[in-house]
Amino acid sequence: MLQSSVNASNEILQGILEGKKTEIPNSCMGFVDVRDVADAHVIAFEKGKAGDRFICMTAARPWKEWYDILREASPVHAGNIPTNMAEGEEKGPMKFDNSKLTDLGWNPCDLKTSLTDTVSSIS
């Protein structure tokens, strides 16, 4: 982390690691790693054209996947991270068409890499 305080996105993850959540939501959450956003800006500047718009996201993944990765990425916090799902129907992942950006060479990292690196940076 470059700043002295935790940003809003990392604050959510930190709360999960600290046991501030009691159950796993039955929904999905989109993500994009800040390093991928920086890469996308460079690629768009170098290879895009004026007025182009790009989707800088891969998919919204189920929270259960997030929690499982966080448990693995931070064994010291694993006992704080809930394993029980919230009531209700589980919602599947949403996908986004980022082909305009990937066709220019954008290669975003996966959720596991992003979360594992984030845990390392906020721990």
In summary, what is this structure?
The chain is mostly helical and 123 residues long. It has helices spanning 8-17, 34-47, 63-73, 99-102, 111-122, and strands spanning 28-30, 59-62, 94-95. A three-stranded antiparallel sheet has the order 1-2-3.
Describe this structure in words.
The protein has 123 residues and is mostly helical. Helices cover 41% and strands 7% of the residues. The protein has helices spanning 8-17, 34-47, 63-73, 99-102, 111-122, and strands at 28-30, 59-62, 94-95. It has a three-stranded antiparallel sheet. Helix 3 (63-73) crosses helix 5. The longest helix has 14 residues, at 34-47. It is globular, with a radius of gyration of 16 Å.
Structural class: mainly alpha
- The gross shape turns out to be globular
Task: Say how many strands there are.
Answer: 3
Give the CA-CA distance, first to last residue: 10 Å
Number of helices, counting only DSSP H or I runs of 4 residues or more: 5
N-to-C series of helices and strands: HEHEHEHH
Poorly predicted runs of 5 or more residues: none
Proportion of residues in β-strands? 5-15%
Give the % helix. Answer: 40-55%
**Overall pLDDT, averaged?**
91
Neighbour order of strands in the largest sheet: 1-2-3
* Radius of gyration using CA atoms only: 16 Å
Major beta-sheet overview: 3 strands, antiparallel
Task: Please outline the helices and strands.
Blueprint: H1 8-17, E1 28-30, H2 34-47, E2 59-62, H3 63-73, E3 94-95, H4 99-102, H5 111-122
Antiparallel strand pairs: 1-2, 2-3
Helix pairs in contact: 3-5
